[in-house]
Design a protein that fits this description.
The structure holds 2 protein chains of 2 kinds. Helices cover about 65% and strands about 5% of the residues of chain A. Chain A has 7 helices and 4 strands, in the order αααββββαααα. In chain A, the strands form 2 sheets. A two-stranded antiparallel ribbon of chain A has the order 1-2. Chain A has a two-stranded antiparallel sheet with strand order 3-4. In chain A, a hairpin with a 2-residue loop joins strand 1 and strand 2. Chain A is rod-shaped, with a radius of gyration of 38 Å. By secondary structure, chain B is α+β, with helices and mostly antiparallel strands. In chain B, helix 2 packs antiparallel against helix 4, helix 2 packs parallel to helix 5 and helix 3 packs antiparallel against helix 8. The longest helix of chain B is centred in the N-terminal third of the chain and has 62 residues. Classes of the chains: A mainly alpha, B alpha+beta. Chains A and B meet through helix 1, helix 2 and strand 3 of A and helix 2, helix 3, helix 8, helix 9 and helix 10 of B.
């Protein structure tokens, strides 16, 4: 094969171009630390990375949903625990009055205590998280229990919320309830007492019995207090169970998140050791090629002609 | 045969060697001229004469100056030039499109879609919250902006491809005219018995340039002219006349142009856009970028926007806003697609998708009227359903996929197109380089060789001069005899 000058030079230039191209690719990878910098670098990996990124974004959202749901449940739990305390106090008061002397002065002071305790129960039923009343069902914007004063001087306590459950998404297609509705917790269903113990009504009855100083009626109310305590305990364990569910969801999503980060990084990230090694290799090759080319072009018959 | 005969031979040698030196000189001076084929002076003996009954040599002459040329190789080079022209034109356009779908270090349309769904879920946590509602609107606007930006940029790439047609067709016209002119010159020169080596080289390089612009077939005629025609169509150059390509706005879409073909000396023209699209070369690359590659990506984007908007609207309009508003679409509803189309073309662009909801109270997070009895602002069922749309798979032209997944599919598709074009481009470039090296091996000028020739002819020239010296001395001797 004849070898001509322009052939040598164009081959040299082409080779140099190829080397520089490889070098540029490696430099890009070294600079971004990504193996894939454009979809065309690896279309299949792009498909995978983008899909996983979508799932990762969703996972982050699920985790934030779970956090929010947990806050609701914590708030409910603390309200329920306070309600339980209040009912305990009311129960003690009822107990002492049922077996008491029927002293009218004592009855009057007990009346005002129970009135206060009833108000406390209602106010706790109106607990808020952020701007939302957590026991109101969908009616989160207004207090679910009426606080209007009745003729006997106590708050009304009528439930104005709805019986709906609020759910949040804690995983793809999986949601968890984050609320308890006030009607079932404090009023024993709608109408009051239809499915459980009407705690507000019970306090009302106690108040009326005290006002009338009717120890027999008070006595008759005592078993209800046990049931009321049971109802609150049941509600608290329900909240606890939901928190456990959220926690399970959280640890699941967290492990998904870690896995995803791993897989995305595997598909997208460059092996830096390999990149750096190849980079210095390519630089050496380019140098060798440059110096060889420089030498080749120095040789010519012209040098030997006089 | 006398002494003057010797002088005559010496003279022929002097002339011939000088001519060979001229050819060598031409070769040396054109060592870097692209497309130049080296020439060789073919020396031959002059017709012998009878002298004293013997045939005697009569010196030397240049039989012809031949260029070293391989037509087969040239054809292959032209073919690869055409392939390279097509692939590299499409590649550079699609590489720009690819940037739109590149979300490795930065955020793009894909993350905007994720943000949009996340905003619905955030709203489901506090459906009455003004901040959440505001965030959702901002996210939705951002999503719509991304759609618009992407669609606008795609359209720009398409229109730029169209605008480059102007330049390419002008170049084609210039080249075909050049070839026609050279055809004429070569025909005239060779009819007079001359060698039109340089003109042929120039014509070859024009044909090569032309082949990179548009796919051609090429046939050399007996009279030295070449007939150049489109790979799948009419003649571009015939003898000394060339056809003209011109542009005319497309009837259906006046923003883009059809390529018209006007034969030499004719006033009527025909639309050859579809022929050009399958002919190869830069023109084919430009036309396929404009008419096939970019529109395909655009269609995918339109379908994604259309599916997202119609699905979101269906759920949204079934829900209730804080103020009891219902049956409101969230995005501007697309005009109904004309069958067989399953989505509205151009919906992803400006004038297409936009956020129809302006008041935060109109965002329908609830499934029952919050203002009605039994309803409340805490009703988040619609927001949940909308947030959960991200997990729903829809049947779209590119496959059954979620909205986010469809974006990944689009990016994958663009990536594969660019990768394919890059491979085609690299391949034809490598092949072209190899063929060019082969051409250089045969037709290229080797300086070493030329220097050797230079020396050879120089020595021969010296020899011829010596001959003249000798014959002069002989003549002197003869003249001195009569003194």
């Amino acid at each position: 094969m004849r070898v001509t000058e322009s052939m040598t030079f164009s081959t040299m230039i082409n080779n140099m171009q190829t080397l520089r191209e490889k070098l540029a690719k490696l430099q890009e990878q070294a600079a971004t630390t990504y193996r894939v910098n454009a979809p065309s670098d690896d279309p299949q990996a792009t498909l995978q990375i983008y899909n996983l990124k979508g799932i990762k974004a969703a996972t982050n959202q699920y985790l934030s949903n779970i956090k929010s749901g947990n806050a609701w449940l914590k708030q409910a739990e603390s309200a329920l625990s306070s309600i339980s305390d209040v009912i305990g106090k009311a129960k003690d008061a009822a107990f002492s009055m049922a077996n008491g002397s029927g002293d009218p002065a004592l009855a009057t002071s007990m009346t005002s205590l129970i009135r206060q305790l009833k108000e406390e129960v209602v106010v706790l039923g109106n607990t808020k998280y952020g701007d939302s009343y957590i026991f109101g069902g969908y009616k989160t914007e207004s207090a679910p229990f009426s606080t209007t004063l009745l003729a006997n001087g106590s708050v009304d306590g009528t439930y104005n919320g709805t019986a709906d459950s609020i759910r949040v998404e804690i995983g793809p297609g999986s949601s968890s309830q984050i609320n308890l509705t006030g009607d079932s917790v404090l009023r024993g269903g709608t109408p009051p007492g239809s499915t459980g113990t009407d705690i507000v009504g019970m306090m009302d009855n106690l108040l009326n019995a005290l006002t009338a100083n009717d120890s027999a009626a008070i006595q008759a109310l005592l078993p209800q207090f046990g049931k009321a305590m049971d109802q609150i305990t049941a509600a608290r364990s329900e909240v606890g169970a939901r928190m456990v569910r959220l926690d399970t969801g959280r640890s699941m999503q967290e492990s998904v998140q870690v896995n995803l980060t791993d897989v995305i990084s595997g598909a997208q990230d460059a092996d830096m050791v390999k990149v750096m090694t190849e980079l210095s290799q390519q630089q050496t090759v380019l140098q060798a090629s440059l110096s060889a080319s420089a030498k080749i072009s120095q040789v010519s018959l012209l040098d030997y002609l006089k | 045969m006398g002494v003057s005969g010797l002088l005559d031979i010496a003279k022929s040698a002097l002339f011939t060697q000088r001519m060979a030196l001229d050819v060598t000189g031409e070769n040396i001076s054109n060592v870097n001229t692209p497309g130049y084929s080296r020439q060789t002076a073919l020396l031959q003996t002059r017709t012998p004469i009878l002298s004293s009954g013997f045939p005697m040599g009569n010196g030397v002459e240049v039989g012809s100056v031949r260029r070293v040329y391989d037509d087969f190789l040239q054809r292959q080079i032209r073919l690869e030039n055409g392939r390279y022209g097509e692939a590299s034109t499409s590649y550079s356009s699609m590489k720009r499109v690819e940037q739109l779908f590149s979300e490795f270090g930065t955020d793009g349309l894909g993350s905007s879609v994720s943000d949009f769904f996340n905003a619905w879920q955030d709203l489901s946590l506090n459906p009455g919250g003004e901040a959440e509602r505001q965030t959702l609107l901002v996210r939705s606007e951002a999503l719509v902006d991304r759609f618009h930006q992407t669609a606008t940029y795609l359209d720009q790439v398409r229109l730029e491809a169209d605008r480059s047609l102007q330049g390419v067709t002008a170049e084609v016209n210039q080249l075909t005219n050049g070839i026609a002119t050279l055809n004429q010159q070569i025909n005239e020169l060779e009819a007079m018995g001359g060698e039109a080596n340089e003109q042929r080289d120039s014509r070859d390089s024009l044909v090569r340039d032309l082949a990179s612009k548009v796919g051609i077939t090429y046939l050399e005629q007996g009279d030295g002219t070449v007939t150049v025609s489109l790979a799948a169509g009419p003649n571009l150059v015939n003898g000394n006349s060339a056809a003209t390509l011109s542009l005319q706005p497309n009837v259906a879409d006046p923003q883009v142009h059809d390529v018209l073909y006007t034969p030499a000396g004719s006033a009527s023209s025909t639309d050859i856009t579809s022929i050009l699209a399958s002919s190869g070369g830069e023109l084919a690359g430009t036309i396929s970028t404009r008419d096939t590659l970019v529109p395909k990506v655009m269609a995918g984007l339109d379908e994604m926007a259309y599916t997202l908007a119609t699905q979101v609207n269906t759920i949204h309009s079934s829900g209730y806003g804080l103020n009891g508003s219902t049956a409101l679409p969230f995005f501007t509803p697309p005009t109904a697609p004309v069958p067989p189309a399953t989505f509205t073309a151009g919906y992803s662009g400006i004038g297409g998708i936009s956020v129809a909801i302006t008041s935060t109270a109109d965002i329908a997070a609830a499934q029952s009227d919050p203002t009605a009895v039994g309803g409340g602002k805490g009703d988040n069922r619609n927001a949940l359903a909308l947030g959960d749309l991200r997990n729903t798979q829809f049947a779209m032209a590119g496959g059954v996929s979620t909205i986010e997944g469809y974006y990944a599919l689009l990016a994958n598709d663009v990536g594969m197109t660019v990768q394919g074009l890059n491979q085609a481009q690299t391949q034809s470039q490598t092949l072209g380089n190899q063929l060019e090296a082969l051409r250089q091996a045969g037709s290229g000028v080797s300086l070493d060789e030329e220097f050797a020739n230079l020396l050879k002819y120089q020595k021969a020239f010296e020899g011829a001069a010596k001959l003249i010296n000798a014959s002069t001395e002989m003549l002197d001797t003869v003249l001195n005899m009569v003194r």
